[in-house]
């Protein structure tokens, strides 16, 4: 039951972020600059900066993880080869 609750909360959060971002990037450029709705959203330049920053961060984390896994795997192979050679 807990997994369904977590999944539902993740779905609701993702939907809210999607609706906010879609409203910000697609509909707000057509709203008058003096309208009070503009106070709910950051400047439009951040509509590009935020996804770029997240993509760079995600790529860095995945690349670092893969590098660590490859280095550890290589060390294990080298250790096994060294033990096999010693016997």
From TrEMBL:
The keyword Iron does not apply. One of its GO terms (biological process) is dolichol phosphate mannose biosynthetic process. Pathway: Protein modification; protein glycosylation. Component of the dolichol-phosphate mannose (DPM) synthase complex. Belongs to the DPM2 family. Its main location: endoplasmic reticulum. The keyword DNA repair does not apply. GO terms for cellular component: dolichol-phosphate-mannose synthase complex; endoplasmic reticulum membrane. It is a multi-pass membrane protein. Regulatory subunit of the dolichol-phosphate mannose (DPM) synthase complex; essential for the ER localization. It is found in: Endoplasmic reticulum membrane. It holds the Pfam family DPM2. This is Dolichol phosphate-mannose biosynthesis regulatory protein. GO terms for molecular function: enzyme regulator activity. Keywords: Endoplasmic reticulum, Membrane, Transmembrane, Transmembrane helix. The chain crosses the membrane at residues 7-27, 47-71.
């Amino acid at each position: 039951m807990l997994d369904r609750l977590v999944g539902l909360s993740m779905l609701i959060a993702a939907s809210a972020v999607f609706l906010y971002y879609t409203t910000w990037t697609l509909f707000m450029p057509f709203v008058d600059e003096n309208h009070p709705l503009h106070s709910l959203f950051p400047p439009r330049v951040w509509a590009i900066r935020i996804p770029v920053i997240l993509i760079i961060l995600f790529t860095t984390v995945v690349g670092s993880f893969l590098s660590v896994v490859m280095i550890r795997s290589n060390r294990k192979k080298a250790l096994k080869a060294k033990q096999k050679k010693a016997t």
